[in-house]
Design goal:
- There is one protein chain.
- With about 250 residues, this protein is of the alpha/beta class.
- The chain has a single domain, classed as Rossmann fold.
- It is built from seven helices and eleven strands.
- The strands form two sheets. Strands 5-3-2-6-9-10-1-11 form an eight-stranded parallel sheet, with helices on one face. It has a three-stranded antiparallel sheet with strand order 4-8-7.
- Strand 2, helix 2 and strand 3 form a beta-alpha-beta unit.
- Helix 1 crosses helix 2.
- The radius of gyration is 17 Å and the shape is globular.
- Bound molecules: 2-phosphoglycolic acid (PGA).
- The site of 2-phosphoglycolic acid has 6 residues, from helix 2.
Length: about 250
Amino acid sequence: MIDILASPDLVALRAADVITEGLVSLCGGTLGLATGATMLQIYARLVDRFRSGTISFCEVTFFNLDEYIGIPRTATGSFRTFMHRCFFDLVDVDPARAHLPDGMSSDVSSEALRYEALIRASGGIDLQLLGIGSNGHIGFNEPGSDFGSRTREVLLTEATRVANAPYFAKGAEVPHRAVTMGIGTILESRKILLIATGKHKAEAISAALSGPLSTACPASALRRHPNVHIICDAAAASHIVGCVAVQTQ
Ligand code: PGA
């Protein structure tokens, strides 16, 4: 299902609706989280709902998609810092239920296995929130990532490092490596909510929906999942061709 909405504001509102309805119907449940500029407004709308008493997060278990390798958890650019600043510290999240991969582990392969086991032990992810890179990446699964890949160490492309540089302190280097849930891990989520806003995402969205099913566009793997809900703004949808079931508002 695809919703195409007029503005990023409406996209964030719709995404917050889908997440809220999903979590309320599950009386908690397990939510996969993403980072990045697209997510900021969505977390802000979820915080609004918490403050107005519409939703509580204390029974929800969270798994973030990815984390940089080799920077402290509290570094300005870490995804843990992002999540605390934009969401965890502003709502009633139970810290024991808020998981990110440990990018400071001395043994990333073991850490990746631990993270996968933790997701399984929590019963799997009910709803996975996803952004998309302009190069079609999901999580930090860059082009070329196998559709069956699991949580693992990856090398970031230069384009991804440049896109994420604004989150780092002035002069701090964006790490070259990260640990990310794999595409296979993501595809095991019961439902996936993919969000894209802005013209710079138009090509990636079009390739994901109607380009070849290919590791050149990691997001094209989502076509193998039976329950993906895409919410994007008109700019991000502007290159979609031959797409049915588009709802325009
Ligand atoms: P963005 O990142 O929201 O900052 O564009 C999305 C992503 O890279 O997955």
